[in-house]
Amino acid sequence: MPAPLSPADYPLTFPTLISSLSRVLGPSSGLTSSDVDLAELTALMQSYDSNPVDWASYSISDPSRGYTRNMVDRGNGKSNVLVVVWSPGKGRGSPIHDHAGAHCLMKVLKGRLTETRYAWPAQDHHDSLKEDDLDHSQRQACCGTRRKGMKCIGEKSYGENEVTYMSDELGLHRIWNPDQHNVAVSLHLYTPPHVATTGCAVFNETTGKASHVPEYNVYSEAGIVLSPVKA
């Protein structure tokens, strides 16, 4: 088991954050392992004060796409860390998707991002999704969005340096950039890296129909655009 980090160990630089995340995960199989503390990983993400100089080489954008997924670190083979650049004025951002049994921590590095959460389409009662825990503003943001097979259960915006967590137990979600003129940038930790290895499911907002995406490609790795890059 890795030695617990003290506040003095918390990262002040982007490279230290990445290496610390890998160190905390150690040889584990992901966030559900008994030797991994989600609170500690979250604290690490929160402790880093975003500085564009640190991550500029990874934040490669493509205005023709809604977003680009840029690989920063594959950790110990048990996680992936990506910088995602969200283009402005591209509608609803990512498709509604699951996480293939993995867990995700997201930190906003620049701008503002909105997360919309949905219940699994076959589930009419959502006690396990903690719908009752949503505040009034989150409920109101989703009014009128019940579709055949899909139900929005919450919507929240995150600003620079804010961190959020998502897993399949909490439902499905999409992330999007509400700014019509400026890019947003986020840092994502996925563990285990199931999406990169086996793909994930995306859901039609109107019908709730799921489609399997067998390979969720990255746009760049270590600051180098991969060729050919699939959409």
Number of helices: 5
Order of helices and strands: HHHEEEEEHEEEEHEEEE
Q: Could you tell me the number of beta strands?
A: 13
Strand order of the largest sheet: 7-4-9-2-1-12-13
Q: Into which percentage range does the β-strand content fall?
A: 25-35%
The residue ranges in which pLDDT falls below 50 over 5 or more consecutive positions are 123-147
The oligomeric state is: single chain
Largest sheet: 7 strands, mixed
- In helices, the fraction of residues equals 10-25%
Kindly name the structural category: alpha+beta
* Ends distance: 39 Å
Can you summarize this structure?
By secondary structure, this protein is α+β, with helices and mostly antiparallel strands.
Structural features, described:
The chain has 231 residues and is α+β, with helices and mostly antiparallel strands. Helices cover 16% and strands 29% of the residues. It has helices at 14-25, 38-47, 52-55, 136-141, 194-198, and strands spanning 67-73, 80-86, 96-97, 103-110, 113-118, 152-158, 163-167, 172-176, 184-191, 200-203, 210-213, 220-221, 224-225. Strands 7-4-9-2-1-12-13 form a 7-stranded mixed β-sheet. The chain is globular. The termini are far apart. Mean pLDDT is 82; it is low at 123-147.
